[in-house]
Amino acid sequence: MPASTRVITLLTDFGLKDHFVSAMKGVMLGVNPDLNFVDITHSIPPQDIRSAAFTLSQTYPYFPPNTVHLAVVDPGVGSARKAIAVSAGNQFFVGPDNGILTYVLEGEADAVVYEITADHYFRKPVSSTFHGRDIFAPAAAWITRNISLFQIGPPLKNPVRLALPQVKRLNEKLLQAAILAVDHFGNLITNLKPADLPAYGKPSSGACKIVTPQKKEITSFRSTYAEGNEGELFVLPGSTGYLEIVMRNGSAASSLGLSSGSIIGVVLSS
To answer: What is the pLDDT of the chain when averaged over all its residues?
Structure first.
């Protein structure tokens, strides 16, 4: 692996208040002192594997070939859940086998998964509560030292995959959709794309609306944040390619009480 691609990204729910992230970086530098780290985020909501998987999916495609992505949101740490390393899309991924790599496995046809079992690469002793430091971090760093993934462990045929929510047509006029993630601003990223809503962008006169579980209706569709009124809830196409429910200068998530995994309805006509 050329020195210019010795990049490791980190994505966790550890936050930056404690020692966890720095300890992982220290372990990796001990294996390869020439590493360059990029922190994707350490603010994933605790134990929110779905949000972590989505966030990773929105970042890894922009990195150069041979980047190693270390993703650790691991509520099953110390249990029988496996540790995995993946080669996909000319990049590498390391993390727990709990679905955090679902979007990678779904989106990259060339993905090959290996179970991390070669414990001579681990930091010893291995803590039962911090595999990020003792298993995942050293594995990620050793990959940048040009070891082949089969040296880390055997191929794994059936890694855990999250059941990604699909837009469902319940009848001629009603769709069921879901919230994929909530960003820092409280914007609700749905699994809807503009093509799912034929009336998107047209004047909202009851032709199309989103309905929350609390029966709150969102009927305004905009193209930019600036088009919305102060405190107004509306829908716009986000940079992810999905439609987002937003509030100008406010949090749609807080206003509606929705979070990752929440189910919403779409009424296509009145």
So the answer is: 92
